């Protein structure tokens, strides 16, 4: 088997309700999907869950991802196949673009598409290919409300749908009161907060007001590129600190582990594993195993991915090494007006069941993909 073509299509995805974080409010995303075709007639798809701009972190905007793919990543794959022979597995694929610094989101889309091909080729579901053993997965939701009533409404709807873990977006001035209200209304749900790097070394003490609310974790309170200062403030907080934005690789996780370990506080370090933020599932699996061995809890974050990306993440959540519920579902029903799978994903009583169905386990909606991508950028590269 060799890769015969790689195409990138941008599909406009529209949220059913706006999603607000400390860095802004989003309603639509021009979303790239990578399609790989192989010489044995297979076709795999990988979503790149880009946002509109780089406000969450560098290189997550669609233009940056398209530039990396077109100018560097795809040409490197072509060159590697010409010079070193067919790319038929994940290590060979990753090796072909390993020289490119960064571009983790862009790389992850190509990798995801090849994982889809390999699962089809070897006739198994992705969760099994990744060493998963868990068949039912406790899932959570992320609440991106702009006002307290909006947050409470979304929490209400999520609880009514059976989700047992809520994550609430916070920022300075929209934190302790919001978390306290949600905690009071839902004393038995698992609750965590995500600041998306909205606090500074000048105002992080505001977070101490959250310490008595029995929160699972506080996610990325400080700067998007920081690990060291997070380890310092973690000494002064009872609630575990969870890293999101600042983790790009197993090495980053190892650096965090050594800092928290020095404080004797590995039980207060939690890692949000987002496969696209660590360049793909291969690195994500390595991180899950490392963390499990070291007693660092992990969970799987989302990027407002379509049902296709979410379904891949749910397969990854089949790994027994992953401890906590991930951001896999929308608190108010479906995230998008039109989604990319033929049948929507469903969780029952806050759990999703993995099946023995091939690869991603759900069917990609090619007709809708073609229609929605009509007139939007589509580039095909022969490699
Ligand atoms: O920080 O986890 C985040 C969405 C966009 C960018 C960053 C984040 C999020 C979410 C959404 O919290 C989680 C989801 O996809 O359900
Ligand atoms: Mg986050």
Descriptors for this entry?
383 residues; alpha/beta; 33% helix; globular; binds 2-succinylbenzoate; binds magnesium ion
Strand elements, count? 13
- The helix fraction, in percent, is 25-40%
Rounded average pLDDT = 97
Give the SSE order as H and E letters.
EEEHHHHEHEHEEHEHEHEHEEHE
Low-confidence stretches: none
The fraction of residues assigned to DSSP E strands is 15-25%
Number of helices, where a helix is a run of at least 4 consecutive DSSP H or I residues: 11
Q: Could you tell me which ligands this complex binds, including any ions or cofactors? A: 2-succinylbenzoate, magnesium ion
Structural class: alpha/beta
- CA(first)-CA(last) distance: 13 Å
Q: Over all CA atoms, what is the radius of gyration? A: 20 Å
Question: What summary fits the major beta sheet?
Answer: 9 strands, mixed
Query: Judging from the principal axes of the Cα atoms, what is the shape?
Result: globular
Descriptive notes:
A hairpin with a 2-residue loop joins strand 1 (3-21) and strand 2 (24-38). The strands form two sheets. Strands 4, 5, 6, 7, 8, 9, 10, 11 and 12 form a nine-stranded mixed beta sheet that branches. The protein has a four-stranded antiparallel beta sheet with strand order 3-2-1-13. Helices cover 33% and strands 22% of the residues. By secondary structure, the protein is α/β, with parallel strands linked by helices. Helix 8 (250-262) packs parallel to helix 9. The mean pLDDT is 97. Residues 56, 142, 194, 196, 244, 301-305, 327 line the site of 2-succinylbenzoate. Magnesium ion binds next to loops.
